[in-house]
Every structure is written in C-alpha cells, then in structure tokens.
Amino acid sequence: MALTLCSSSSFINLNETKDLITPDDLSLGTVSFARTKPSCRLRTRSSMQDATQISHEKAYTSEGGRSGGEKFHPFSGPHSAGNDSRVPVFVMLPLDTVTHGGHLTKPRAMNASLMALKSAGVEGVMVDAWWGLVEKDGPLKYNWEGYAELVQMVERHGLKLQVVMSFHQCGGNVGDSCSIPLPPWVLEEIGKNPDLVYTDKSGRRNPEYISLGVDSLPVLRGRTPIQVYTDYMMSFRERFRDYLGDVIVEVQVGMGPCGELRYPAYPESNGTWRFPGIGEFQCYDKYMRASLEASAQAITKRDWGRSGPHDSGQYNQFPEDTGFFRREGTWTTEYGKFFLEWYSGSLLAHGDRILEAAEGVFQGTGAKLSGKIAGIHWHYRSRSHAPELTSGYYNTRHRNGYDPIARMFSKHDVAFNFTCMEMKDTEQPEHCSPEGLVRQVKMATRSARVELAGENALERYDSGAYSQVLETSRSDSGNGLCAFTFLRLNKRLFDGENWRNLAEFVKSMSEGSRSRRLSEFDISGTNLYVGFIKEKNVKTKEAALM
Fold first, then answer.
1. pLDDT over 50 (residue 78)
2. What's residue 270's pLDDT?
3. What is the rounded CA–CA span in Å between residue 359 and residue 361?
4. CB of 105 within 8 A of CB of 98?
C-alpha cells in the first residue's frame, strides 16, 4: 500500500531535498521530510553523572525549595475539564524506543511516525522511562539522553508527551516485545537477598518488581525503594524542568508490574499463568510474611498470620475449583476477610507512599500525575472475583474494591488510568464482563471526584474496538474519559484500513464521540490519509510502508 503525505509549508517542504531520508533509513516505513533545527531548551549539563544524595525528609518543588502548601497548577492539557466532550488521543510508543545504550532507537523512523501522528490529529505520545535503562550504570547515575532526543523531537512536531516512570521490568507479560530487566546493581542485591521480590506459595520468585514488603527498608545500597524511586523522579524533573507542563504534560507513576498498582498474580513468563486462570497470591517473601504475622498478632489471631490461604488453588484453576474462592468459600469467613483486607490494604498503602513522593517531586511543575490500574475482567461475574483478589483488588459481589483506590488517587490529585476500554462482553467468555468492570470504575472515579483516563488492553485496530472506546468515553453512566492512550505505535498501525480507522477515531473523539466517516481522499479532514492521490495538481511524496 502507499501512504501519501500532502505537501504544505507547515508539514513538509518538498523543495528541500538534500536532507531527505532514503528507504534504508526507516524500519516502520519511509517518509521524506526536511531536517529541522534542534531545540535549544534542553539543559546543557550531562545527565550521565553521579547525583547528589537527596534528603528524604522534605518534599521539593521544581525550584528546589520547600513545597509548603503549593498545589498543582490548573491543568490545561489533555485532562482539562473545560471541554467535557473532547477526548484527546495519545499513542504509546514502542517499548524499545530508547536502546540499551541510552540512545533513541531509529530516530528518523520515529520522526516520520510523529509527523504522521500529528497530521492525523493525535494529541501526543506516551513513552516508558525505564529504570533498567536510565539508572543501569549504578546508584544515582542517570542517563536521560535518549529521552532528551525524544522530547526535542516531540516538541518540534507540536505534540505532547506522557512519560511513564517505569520501575518494573519489561518482558514476560502480554505485549512485551523486548527485554529490559531491572538495573544490574538492583539485580545484584536481589541475588544476595531473593526475598526482595514477590514470591508465591510455591517459592517461585518474580523479578518484575521490588516487593512492597521492603518499601521502607534500606535494602538497595543503603536506600529504601521509595527513596530510590523518589531520587529517580527528582532527577527526571531536574533534567526536563523546562518541558514539564508544556511538552511533558503527564507523568504516569509506575507502582507495580506492567506499571500497574497490583501484585504480579498472573505472570505469563514460562507458561506460569494462562487466561483465564485465577492467579495466585504473592505474599510469601519473608517481609510480606512478617507483615501478615504482625497484623494477625495485633488482633490476637496469631494462627492467621502463619501463612496465606491454604485452599486458594493454583494459577490456572477456576474459582469453583478452590475452597477459598468458590461461591461460599473461605473468602466469606472472618479469616478470609482479614487476609483480603491485609493483602489489599498493603497494596493500597504502597501506592499511597509512591504517589505521596511523586506529588512532592512534581508539585508546581504543571505536569499532571496519573497512575494505572489493571482491567482484570475475567471471572468478574463470579461472586468472589478471584483474579481481582489475587491481584490485590478487594472487589467482590458484596464489596467495592475500586472506591478506596479512587479515593487514594484523588487525595494526591492523580488521574486514574484504566485498561480494557475497548472490550465488549460478547467477545469474552461467559464469566467475563469488561463492560461491567468499566462501569464500576467509572462510578467509583466519579464518586471520588478523580479524573478517569483510558487505554486498550490488547492491540486492536478494528472499528468495533474503536466504537466501544467511543461509547465508554461518554459520561452518561459515571465518569467520562479525560484522555485515551492507544496501544501501540507499530507497522500494523499504518496499514491502510487500520490507519483510516485510527484517523476516524481520533476525529470522533475530538468531536465529543460524534462519529464522522473520513473519505478515502480526505484532504480537508487531515493532512495525512491512505490512498493514492490521482489529481495531478497535488504535490505529493509517497511512502511505501513495510
């Protein structure tokens, strides 16, 4: 197929041909464009240096002073409530946007992709700022250079940027196309003390994310994990302070595997878990066990603290196959309620600690904070909601587990980012209900007065998935969406019908979900469209996509 770019002075100058890219330069495709001058706003000091030790007894503003009672600036970016009907669309960049060497992957291909997205009306893009890349050379040694290249490029195209503070590993989950482990020096500490990571009842260790059981213990070369995350965010703030609130409009704070506030209850690596299994509780490292024991002793129920539930089954079982999760199982007993309150409460406290730190770091910068919650929709129609329970969401037929999460997010003025917005009940097994789950979350965020943003859980390019997101974005029942981030930028997105569907979707979201079909030769609607222009008086450059 061919991707055709309309020539205009603001989009591409075809008279400047000496700097055009050759087909061999791009992997996503080939697009001709003129070289643009780099921005001069990035701070000239190198970010590849030892950072000074930061006091963790104070919260700092972007100027380095004490924050006091300062609040976020009124946000005029994608989360603004000024125009309730418009929902800006962002696109997730590839997981390996920055290389292991710290440089931008295929910058010319990225430049062409950003040009196309801008022309289609997309608001901006999202990128993971991987802990395992930025701080891989040692504690407090940060390399932000690849991300600096990206920020400059995004600004040149007039786009906005959402940056994820990704404190988890990449690899082993749905959609993970590359491997980015935690920093080597962190893995060394885990090698010395395997209890630093989440552990299931069989003793299986999960290296995706540091266990919340050590949040406040100096187990990472003299720093606590919360201190390490705070230092990382402060380094990011200082490196990009001139862009925060302007180009970088949102900072999503990672709080668990896949960046989501949850336990790694359903790991796909090595075939451990398969959809739609219930997963397993992840509370068997020695620090989590000590916390459980202390909680049981506090209510004089020492026996309850000896271990997790003995009858909760295995990863790939169904609720009715277990004593704990079946219809009137152990989850309904006093012991079951105690355990689930401790397990979910520990996760909630973990999120509270990280978001409190993030609020102190980014207060006054103008950038919006967000956090991500997983859309665990399988077995949603059962009474126990087993997969949600093992993941740390105490949500059952009789208890709303998303209200306390939404209230915690609201406390820190953090947008609630939720997945599975594209899914329909009719597309899933009978026990699933993504639509019911989304409705519940919309009501919870509305009640807590917290903004709701959305993502698609799986890569979908069909009009049916887009239509479902459009329906979800409305505020008829509960909270409407303040922004939507599409997963993800790749070659398939630029295929003819896929690209046309995206362009129509972006336009509909910008018009408040009023769908308007884009014609094949839609010159007025967008600057970029799929198809061949036959009119001889239109100056074009064709890009043959791979």
1. no
2. 84
3. 5
4. yes
199 forms bridges with which residues in the sheet?
A: 205
123 included as an active-site residue? no
Cis peptide bond upstream of 276, omega within 30: yes
Please tell me what DSSP assigns to residue 427: G
Residue 20 has pLDDT above 50, yes or no: no
Q: Are strands 248-253 and 368-373 parallel, antiparallel or unpaired?
A: parallel
Return the closest-CA partner of residue 419 out of 464, 456, 368.
456
The conformation of residue 264, written as its DSSP 8-state character, comes to: -
Instruction: Say whether 504 is catalytic.
Output: no
Q: Is the peptide bond before 381 cis (omega within 30 degrees of 0)?
A: no
The pLDDT tens digits for 319-345 are: 999 999 999 999 999 999 999 999 999
Residue 194 is encoded by which pair of tokens? Answer: 């395997």
How does strand 452-455 pair with strand 528-530?
unpaired
Q: Which residue has tokens 């910058």?
A: 107
- Which of 208, 250, 260, 451 does the annotation list as catalytic? 260
Distance CA 71, CA 474 (A): 29
Q: Which of 155, 422, 455, 504 is catalytic?
A: 455
For residue 195, the tally of other CB atoms under 10 A from its CB is 19
Instruction: Give the separation between CA 348 and CA 344, rounded to whole angstroms.
Output: 6
User: CB–CB of 484/508 below 8 Å?
Assistant: no
Q: Is residue 434 a contact partner of residue 428, using CB atoms and an 8 Å limit?
A: yes
The candidate with the shortest Cα–Cα distance to 170, out of 220, 96, 262, is 96
Query: How would you list the strands of the sheet with 540-544, edge to edge?
Result: 528-530, 2-6, 540-544
- The residues pairing with 541 across neighbouring beta strands, listed in sequence order, are 5
Output 306-311 pairs: Cβ under 8 A, ≥24 positions apart: 307/201, 308/201, 308/281, 308/283, 308/284, 308/339, 309/281, 309/336, 309/339
Q: Who's near 334: CB < 8 A, 6+ residues apart?
A: none
